[in-house]
Each structure stands twice: as structure tokens, then as C-alpha cells.
Amino acid sequence: MKADVAIVGAGTAGAALALHCARKGLSVVCVDRRPLNEAGAHWINGVAAWMFDEAGIDRPAGDELVGEGHAFHLVAGFGGERVIVEDHGVLDANMRKLVNRLQQGASEKGARFLGETRVEGFDGETLATSAGPITARFYVDASGLSGARLLDQPQVARTDICAAAQEVRKVRDVQAARAFFLARGAKLGETLCFTSVAGGYSIVNVRLQGDDISILTGSIPAEGHPSGKELLDRFVAEHPFIGETIHGGARAIPLRRPYDLLGKGNVALLGDAACQVFSAHGSGIGIGMIAARMLAETIADGRDGYAYGAAFHRKWGGLLATYDLFRRFSQSVTVPELETLMQAGLMDETSVRAGMQQRIPTVSPALALQKLKGATRAPGIALRLGQALTKGAAASLLYRNCPEEESRFSVWQKAVAKVMEG
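and the corresponding C-alpha cells:
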């Protein structure tokens, strides 16, 4: 098989890349080790609406759009202190239907998809697969956390891996389910996100949708906490109004900042394989689709993998690095400390909304003064948060200046490591 572009991984990022490349008239072969209808995430995922626009992908609609516009309650532990966010601009999308739409759209433009196809080797010139060899002008690894490893990218540390799970289940007792949400201050259809329930970086996120309930969980087991699947099963066992599973899945998500080297020559990394994940809440769907569009433009313009990586870092690397520093800070936060942050106004509707939208918060002078006063009421936790944000500002400056010349890359890489790890 021969193609302009060979893609390993037919999930959201890989399928989005196939669609963009096919739209540009490039021939595409995309393989996945799973059946095509099982590629990518299988759950309901919240994606900021603006990210679909930036990625050049139509926003979900119909039965692909599961919810939008409902209030979001960020709750400290399973207690009462919370931040409520209205008008957050996040769309709950059915990932199975989104991936299918992307695959189908790419196929209609001429892309070829091969499911149940394993990658057996790559020598830089030919991709060996169980369906036969593939030669291409450009190769892309969009195979996830532990997939094809076409650039021999480093392993992600276990303490930077989130074990997430999501299920949509039937509700056995609708009245009891409604009473659960109302007793916890949420109106029907709103989301309750119980945070730091098993260590700083852990959630149980639930939303009642008619006769169904959506449950999303996640944690970092390497820190001695139960996995997302264990948290989900425990929550279900504790609430008998929850019935059988309709659909869902579990997966490991990389939380570290994107790899420094995202492409070299005619090979590039994309999505989870590139650690292009908004690590503050572990979502890589939106940023993966955005990166796919950037990579397709790079390939169509005849530029190389390094050019794609440098362009991505200059535009998005600082955002992801800043929130990765915040994520590492959050891993150390206890429930009482989270309550203190909320009470002091250091974690408020503005900052939580920005995180949900995957943006840097915009703070007015008046709000900045208010937060400064709050910091004086919680000096210890405020100092730790301030240190993370200060490092984030320095990292953002470095990322904005990621060199276009590959010869200067190693110097930049060392400077970034010094800020992020120092």
C-alpha cells in the first residue's frame, strides 16, 4: 500500500487528521489495532465548543450532542463547599459517534481505514503491518499512550498517568436519583463534580439525564489511590438507584506536558501519543483535533515534522505546560485546602470556567485585588499556588519562542526542562 500520509490510530485525533488530509487532496491510509467502531474513547466527553471551531470540525449535534449549557458544581470532596459555573461553553459529546463521524467524513473524501491491523515494525521508510507494508511520504503516530511509538518517544511516568473511567447507566429508581442531586444542591440535569475524593487529583463526576446517569471518574493509582474504575464501581455500589451499564469504557490518560519533540523529518506524533492533553482535567479530545488540523496543514505545505511541533508549541505549548504545573500542584491539595482555596476566592467561578474551557483566566484589576486579599487569608496554600503559576508564566514565554530552526532545539529544550522540573 502507498499513500501520501500513513496514520496509526483511528481515534479522534487520527480520524480528524485523516479527514483534514483527505480534504486537502492527500491520499491517506489509517490503521488501528482495534475494530474501527471501537477506536478511540467510548464515553461521553466534555469538549469546549470553541475547540471544534478551531479544529475546523463541525460541533456535535443530534444524538452526538448529549448535553450543553447545564450548570457545573465543583465540590470539595463529597462535602458542601463548592464553586458553581454557569454558561461554561462545554459540550458533552458522545465520543463513539464523534469518531464515527470523523472516520466516515474522511472515507467519503477518499481516506482508507483498516481496522484490526497491528503495526509490526517501522524502519523510517516502511510501516510493517499485519495487513501488509505501507509506504508513505509522511507517517503519523496517533496510537495513544502505549501504541506504535514511531518516534521512540519516552515512557510517561506512572505518576503522570490518570486511570479514568466513564459509564452511562440506567437508573433503577428515578425518584431516589433526583433526591440524591437535590439533596446536594444541584438541580436536575446539572453536573456534580466531587473533587479530591481519593487524593488531590481525583474526581467522581455525575449527571442525571432523564432515566440515565452519566458517571465519570479518574485518579492517579501510582500515588496509592484507587483507579477511576474502582471509584466508579464503589460509587455505584453505594447508590442502589443506579442500574446496569448502557455503554462506557476505561483508559489510561497521559497527564504530562506535550513531548518536546513532536516531529522529526517525515514522522510526527499526535494526540495522546504526543501527550497533547489538557492535564488539569485529563481531556485530550479538543487539543488533539486542533493539533490534527495544524499537522494536516504542515504536511500539505510540504514542511517537516519538526516545523509542525515548533508551531504547535508556539501556539499551544504554554497553555498546556501552565496547566500541567497546576495539575501537579493539585495532586498535593487536600480537601480542607481545596475548601480554603474556594473560601478565599482563589478558586472561583472565573478560574474554574477558564479551566473547563481550556483557557488561561482573564482577571480584571478588581478581581486581581480580590484574589490578593484572599491570598492573605490563606498564605500557605496561596504561596504554593503562586509558585506554580509563576513557573507557568516563565514556561509560556519559552514556549512562545520555540525555535523554528531545529539546530536551536536542544538549547530550548534544556531551558524548558529547567523551568518545568527545576
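(Above: one complete record from the training split.) The chain has three domains: 2-65+95-153+255-306, 158-254, 323-421.
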